[in-house]
Amino acid sequence: AGKSKVDDDVLDNLEEVLISSDVGVDTTLKIIERIEERVDRDKYLGTDELNLILREEIAGLLSETSGEDATDFVIPENKKPYVLMVVGVNGVGKTTTIGKLAAQFKKKGLNVVLGAADTFRAAAIDQLQVWADRVDVPLVRQDMGSDPASVAYDTLKSAVAKNADVVIIDTAGRLHNKINLMTELTKIKRVMQKVVADAPHDVLLVLDGSTGQNAFEQAKQFTLATEVTALAVTKLDGTAKGGVVIGISDQFKIPVKYIGVGEGIDDLQVFNKFEFVDSFFK
Amino acid sequence: MFNNLSDKLDKALHLLKGHGKITEVNVADTLKEVRRALLDADVNFKIAKDFTTRVKEKALGQDVLTTLNPGQLMVKLVKDELTELMGGETAGVNLTGSPTVILMAGLQGSGKTTFSGKLANYLKTKKTKQVLLVGADVYRPAAINQLQVVGEQIGVEVYAEIENKNPVEIAQNAIAYAKANGKNTVIIDTAGRLAIDEALMTEISNIHKAVTPQETLFVVDSMTGQDAVNTAKAFNDLLNFDGVVLTKLDGDTRGGAALTIKSVVNKPIKFIGTGEKMEAIDVFYPERMADRILGM
Ligand SMILES: Nc1nc2c(ncn2[C@@H]2O[C@H](COP(=O)(O)OP(=O)(O)OP(=O)(O)O)[C@@H](O)[C@H]2O)c(=O)[nH]1
Ligand SMILES: Nc1nc2c(ncn2[C@@H]2O[C@H](COP(=O)(O)OP(=O)(O)OP(=O)(O)O)[C@@H](O)[C@H]2O)c(=O)[nH]1
Ligand SMILES: [K+]
Ligand SMILES: [Mg+2]
Ligand SMILES: [Mg+2]
Hints:
The structure holds two protein chains of two kinds.
Chain A: H1 8-20, H2 25-41, H3 47-63, E1 82-87, H4 94-107, E2 112-117, H5 124-135, E3 139-140, H6 148-162, E4 166-171, H7 179-192, E5 202-208, H8 214-226, E6 230-234, H9 244-252, E7 256-260, E8 268-270, H10 273-279
Parallel strand pairs in A: 1-4, 1-5, 2-3, 2-4, 5-6, 6-7
Antiparallel strand pairs in A: 7-8
Helix pairs in contact in A: 1-2, 3-9, 3-10, 4-5, 6-7, 7-8, 8-9
Chain B: H1 5-14, H2 24-40, H3 45-59, H4 70-86, E1 100-106, H5 112-126, E2 131-136, H6 143-154, E3 157-159, H7 167-180, E4 185-190, H8 198-211, E5 215-221, H9 228-239, E6 243-247, H10 257-265, E7 269-273, E8 281-283, H11 286-294
Parallel strand pairs in B: 1-4, 1-5, 2-3, 2-4, 5-6, 6-7
Antiparallel strand pairs in B: 7-8
């Protein structure tokens, strides 16, 4: 406050804001360098312009991956059923995000089928059943402890028989450093392809917005195992900012599609990069 | 991108090689790297700054010991300081009270329900306690079912009131039930909540006041980033909790949140979670955590 020129103090303060938003040191330095370059170019750059430039520079890191206007999943006409697989580490919000997404697809008039391929965690199937009932869409399930790939297979079979538009497959949370569990995801994919050759059409990696720099390694390992095509960042209704996705989106060229902003059925928003950046300063 | 701290320190400490004495200049250069590594491990921005300032004070003026080169001395200073900060008196669980009441609190998905089961199993098998698990999460879909499955897995009774949406009442009734049924330990699982959710924070404060637990445990995901500082402070301001549980340490996070939380609330980290299974519980070792944060 009270400053009109972008000087070291202003940049130090910016560094603190970005680091405190979990942007990470590397990405923060990258952003600050870009801003320093612009300050050098335009000597009269003032702090009132800083915000604008910052938005542009961060958006630049996200732009190759996230469209100018935030977009939903596009469901191609010729992909029926369109298959979405949801993955991520433990407790990030996969099952909840699936419930919310199912509600959004249904609202658009699409027929949705859910598959409870988390057969491991206690009452994971019951939890997804509650969501399926809430949204009023069918759920394909087997008993706890059964083979998740077999549940995914059944779900796709059922969706094809019902002529459904969209299938969403829930998977058990797993830490990305557990090789066997990561291989299991690859197997689930392969088994689904016996029913729908190019399934899954999208793989959504859910990241917890309060996670720090470990999210990088999560993105890396899940991408290796499942070719992640989109990100959702949850729990942004709290004080956490989720800034780590800037570097992830930049490095792995994966778009951020959604943010979770609560536990309710309507608390899923399409990602907007400008609003996202602005939230760091609130 | 993922060079660990010991690599970075090694690199930075090359600057020190050949110096007979740790001077202000080379300490500053090294500490810049230490600070950066702490930030990469998710230690809070301000706490990383304070930490490096403190290490600097300790480093300055120390003559090089004959058995150590300056690099090793710096590593030792950093590690000792970290260990000390995260340690303090190692407090076990307070098992006084009849029954002993243990209350879980934390953000959504941090691992409260799983840890409730682990702790119940630990107290049952290691301390021969008669444990009652209480399902006081009335919000999350199938939260009670989850606790019931966990209870079945470890052979511990679960108290639940499916129709009751008042967690304060459920907790009070559970304690009465425990007394009447020979249970000497009650573990109350609660819903996840954000620190800024006033209604739910008031609710857990009310549960806390109503049951006056011997142990209130703050359960936190070890992958947490910079927000750990806000959350730990808010929960502690309200509940004055007794200890911290760090979950999901079977991952590869460096876990800098441990240092942040300890620095902010100065409460002992009592347990760690190292897996999804009921046996995956361990006590906390500050030195191991220091190594982990430092990537050593
Ligand atoms: N505040 C908030 N809570 C959320 C959000 N998304 C999910 N949650 C909560 O986070 C907790 C975990 O969510 P789940 O959907 O069970 O997460 P998951 O990834 O399926 O978990 P596992 O299957 O156990 O790995 C639940 O309490 C959810 O209600 C969000 O956007 N905001
Ligand atoms: N790998 C690993 N997973 C864990 C650990 N502790 C809990 N989990 C997993 O993390 C996820 C969330 O755990 P929960 O116990 O449901 O978390 P919670 O805090 O009760 O969640 P809410 O009630 O929704 O707030 C589940 O998939 C657990 O299996 C741990 O130490 N290691
Ligand atoms: K937020
Ligand atoms: Mg789930
Ligand atoms: Mg729970």
